[in-house]
């Protein structure tokens, strides 16, 4: 009986290059995808940008409707999506609710990009 | 006739804080939203991460199917979406097409985050 040299599986798959760095986990990828989906809308990107650009980093719906050219219910809907996704914090004072960028809320996106 | 002092519109809108920084333009927001939509999928985020982690920053479909636990047609579809969105470049060599992260393709996302 002739002895047969068995190659490691890796060597048999000649097309496959080895992975040399950490890869984002399934769990982190799912959570990051959810966050990016909330952000992946032109109006929502502009809302985040406008809030960050406001004096004191705070804005209410009334600050955003005119520059966005959108109705108050539409802006409120986008603010709700961004708040639910963790990008904004909301605090009610008198008649208005004021929104801020949630500290560290863009860190996961930022870390992903830095690692690529 | 009593003279009436007219206040600038800004002062009449007591809820509105002034904008102190640049805001992402409608055009840039639309283009960034399209890019983020392409990226906002768990499998696609893992594909980008896996390609970046591969030796020489290059991978083919055959490198990705097993670690992702997805079929070759599914992985090919995701690679097509990421390539169309400008995140990957594709070069055919022999039987296989090899994918790399397109240089600078994450810069717009990165700039947006830095500005917030």
From TrEMBL, chains A, B:
Coiled coil: none
Gene3D superfamilies for this protein: Winged helix-like DNA-binding domain superfamily/Winged helix DNA-binding domain (1.10.10.10)
PROSITE patterns: HTH_ARSR_1, HTH_ARSR_2
Domain of life: Bacteria
Matches recorded under InterPro entries: ArsR-like_HTH, ArsR_HTH, HTH_ArsR_DNA-bd_dom, HTH_MetalResp_TranReg, WH-like_DNA-bd_sf, WH_DNA-bd_sf
HTH arsR-type domain mapped to chain residues: 24-116
Keywords: DNA-binding, Transcription, Transcription regulation
Cross-referenced SUPFAM superfamilies: Winged helix' DNA-binding domain
Molecular function via GO: DNA binding; DNA-binding transcription factor activity
SMART domains with a match to the protein in the record: HTH_ARSR (SM00418)
NCBIfam families, A to Z: HTH_metalloreg (NF033788)
Protein name: Winged helix-turn-helix transcriptional regulator
Gene source species: Leifsonia tongyongensis
